[in-house]
Each structure stands twice: as structure tokens, then as C-alpha cells.
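User: Run a structure prediction on this.
Assistant: Running it now.
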Amino acid sequence: MPAELPFVLLGKNPPIDDWTKWCDPANAALDKPFAEFLAQQGLNEEAIRLGYDLAPYHGRNSRDVSTMMMSFNSGFVQNQIAAGPESFAAKGGNIKLPEAMAAQLKGDVILGKPVAAIEQNAGGVIVSCRDGSRFQAAKLVCSLPLAALRNVDITPGLPALQAKAVEEVSYQPISIAFLTAKAPFWEEDGFAPGMWSDSFSSTVIPQRYGATDEEVTGLMVQARGDLALEWDRLGAETAMAKIVADIEAMRPAAKGKLETRHYHSWAQEEFSGGAWAYHGAGQATTLPNVIADRAGPISFCGEHTENVSRGVEGALASAERVALEILAG
């Protein structure tokens, strides 16, 4: 598939020998837009558009993400593949993991209190919420994504480079339209229910949450990067109507059989600003090295603070790190 090509090229011609060194300042000369790496592999602009820009894994497009970031991602994914598919998901859905962890917590879990400010003082730290409530503690673990943390007033301020990371690190735009089909039109036209295309509906992924693995219970239509932002500008209702029309134009058998159910934009999420953090050219060999730095009584965790693991794995690794930080005093 066209979308697989960039990762094949990364695997065959890795920019660095050890992907875990992706954020080493010694690799600053390689901290260039991913589009430049793909061009060096012989891809022209149209090949780059088809292979990456239509559905970028990181960034709005290939010019918006560092080659070093992509090297990191490629190495991590290869490690996950080597670990085997049983590591990809929890039975019943990955939500089961945090739910099980939350059930083991002792003490109160206070929800619905967005943080407005964090103030360091002689006794530790005071957290002020938007509703005026305040909480004081000797130590603070902050897991806010950087896109949310930049809306929190921290005093005294963070060191310059760490503050720069909070302000400038981007988060992945991904928007998803959930559809159901009143009839299995894919049986009528003979094609698979899922699609990858360079059209407005981009990627259509069948959901299989029925009694058998073969039953298609819904269709998850996903846009990433620039296309996700285009969907968001149109608004949920208009975007979903256009998605349905696009699928029907490509697959006439689907006409009148699709129903829109839900629209979700990660970029419009106030408390995350996107699906996950990524680094642009020039950022990868500077900013990742300071994001996790302890600031007085404040320890930072979350997938964005880790430089060897991504996603849930990165979040869990960061949790272990901050626990040890606090125990060390």
C-alpha cells in the first residue's frame, strides 16, 4: 500500500544506526523535515503526497515532522511487532487497563476541576482550579499533555527550554467519523468493507465488535493531519454528510445504506489538543531532552515525556520514572 512505503524506506535506510538516539543533539544535522528524507530516497512530490501526506502518522504532513521523530516511531513500532500481537490490545478494549488501575487507587479521585494555575512555594505546591478551589501538597505529578499545560499558569516559570517545549510541541490532528451500515453493501459490490483512498473519506476501517470476528458492526472513517483539520473547519454535520457522499460515489452499492453516528476531533479536545505529541524539524534533538525535567516539587509524566516508548507504553514507563523520583526525595 502507498502508506506503507515511507516505513519500508525507513527500515531499509535508517537515518541513524540506533533509533533510541533519535533525540541526541549529536544528530542535529539529521533533524530535518521528513519530506527531505523521502525525497533523498527517490520519491517525487506526488509519491510523497500519496505515501505520507494523505494520512500522516505524525504531523500535518511530511514537512511538519522531523525525520528523527519518524526514525523513533519506526524503531518503536518494529519492537512492538517483535513483541507479538498479544501486546497490542487488552481484552475487551484498552480502556480496561486504566479502569482496572483506577479501581485500585486509594483515596479520592476528584473530577471536573480543570487546573488554572500551579504555584511552587516553600511547602511544596498549590494547585488552583478554575472554580476557585485550591489543593496543596508537598509533591505534584503533572500528566497534562503539553497542549493543555500551556493554558496553566506556572509560577515560578519553567526553565527557558522546557517552557519552549510546552509552548511549541504540536499534537497530532486526527478526526474520526463513526458510521453504521443498514445492509452489508460490501457483499453486494464484492470489495472489502475497509478502504484506503486519496479521497475525502481517506481511510475506512471496519469495526468488528459483534458475536464473531467476521461481523462488521460499524465503519470508522479516519482523517489525519491536514485533512483532519479540513474536516474540523467544515464542522461535524457537514463533514459527515460529505464523507457519506464520497463513499457512495466510490461505491454505488453503499448508496442509502450508511448512517452517521458520531464525530470526534482530537485537535478540538481542550485537554489534549490532539491525539499525541510529535516533534517538527529542529525540535527533535533539543526539546525532548528537557520535557521530563523535574521542576522543584513538580514531576512530569505522560507519553510525551518518554523518548524510547510511545503511547500507553510510554505513559506507563513515565509513571514508573516519576514514582522513583518522588521516592528518591
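Residues 2-87 form one domain.
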